[in-house]
Write a structure and sequence with these properties.
By secondary structure, the protein is α/β, with parallel strands linked by helices. It has one domain: Alpha-Beta Complex (Spore Coat Polysaccharide Biosynthesis Protein SpsA, Chain A). The chain has nine helices and 13 strands. Helix 3 links the parallel strand 4 and strand 5.
């Protein structure tokens, strides 16, 4: 998409800002084991790892409630009974019995009933500043992700290419020199965007592709549907994949996000 079309599209989106409906539902994807954090995750999923006096998922729930989102759906899998016990009965739970052979797009599709009017989608391993969720909800864009625009990205990160606020590509396969930033694992979906993403998921599943991340589904939307980016503007966050991430989250990030 050329620069003129990008600016024109963004102008139209902003003109429609008053009609952008803020999601009132959040779906937390918490089915995975977190094997790279073993042995810490041998008996609990990584969303239940302690951060300060709370767990990762309880931290997320608190931040969601602080922005007025109380309708929270949790997709469980590995040690699902421990997630239920920790979080309590105030939330909707969906069990992904195929958690060992599927990935986040499959888990999200299981919760499609709750995504239909638009929603936030969160990976259950992210610690983030309150203002990041608020910025995403308050943005003029109906369908958007949060992006940390920075250099020195590696092979492991879910990387993005964008022009202005317009998302062009999201993939781990983007070469680090081409990438402009990293996706945080937090997505805002409109009703229309969620519907299209679910259709893409269903098509992929029929083709036998059940081990896909949500960003891979979004990437397949981009040729025919506009998606946007909201920058972190250096607000703190971290995705916890490895022990060194957990240590940094506890020591450096969580104290800035309480």
């Amino acid at each position: 998409m050329n620069t003129f079309r990008i600016k024109k599209t963004e102008k139209i989106i902003r003109q429609r800002a008053g009609r952008v409906v803020k999601p009132t539902t959040a779906i937390i994807l918490a089915a995975g084991k977190g094997g790279r954090l073993a042995p810490l995750t041998n008996e609990i999923p990584k969303c239940l790892l302690q951060i300060g006096k709370t767990t990762i998922i309880q931290f997320q729930i608190k931040k969601l409630e602080q922005v007025g989102i109380n309708n929270i759906v949790i997709v469980t899998g590995y040690h699902e009974e421990k997630v239920r016990r920790t979080c309590g009965a105030d939330f909707t739970y969906i069990y992904n019995k195929n958690f060992a052979t599927t990935n986040s797009l499959y888990s999200l599709h299981l919760a499609r009933e709750y995504a239909g009017k638009g929603c936030l989608v969160l990976n259950s391993d992210v610690i983030f500043h309150f203002d990041l969720i608020k910025k995403l909800l308050d943005s003029d864009f109906p369908d958007a992700i949060i992006v940390d625009f920075r250099e020195n990205l590696g092979e492991e990160e879910m990387k993005v290419i964008a022009s202005g606020s317009h998302l062009h590509k999201i993939s781990k396969d983007i070469s680090p020199p081409q990438a402009q930033g990293e996706n945080l694992g937090i997505v805002k979906l409109s009703s229309k965007g969620a519907g299209l993403l679910m259709k893409i998921a269903e098509r992929e599943f029929k083709n036998g592709n059940k081990n896909l991340w949500v960003p891979q589904g979004i990437d397949r939307m981009l040729p025919r549907y506009p998606f946007y980016v909201v920058p972190t503007n250096n607000l703190p966050w971290i995705e916890i994949d490895y022990v060194h991430d957990l240590e940094r989250a506890r020591k450096d990030i969580y104290p800035l996000c309480k």
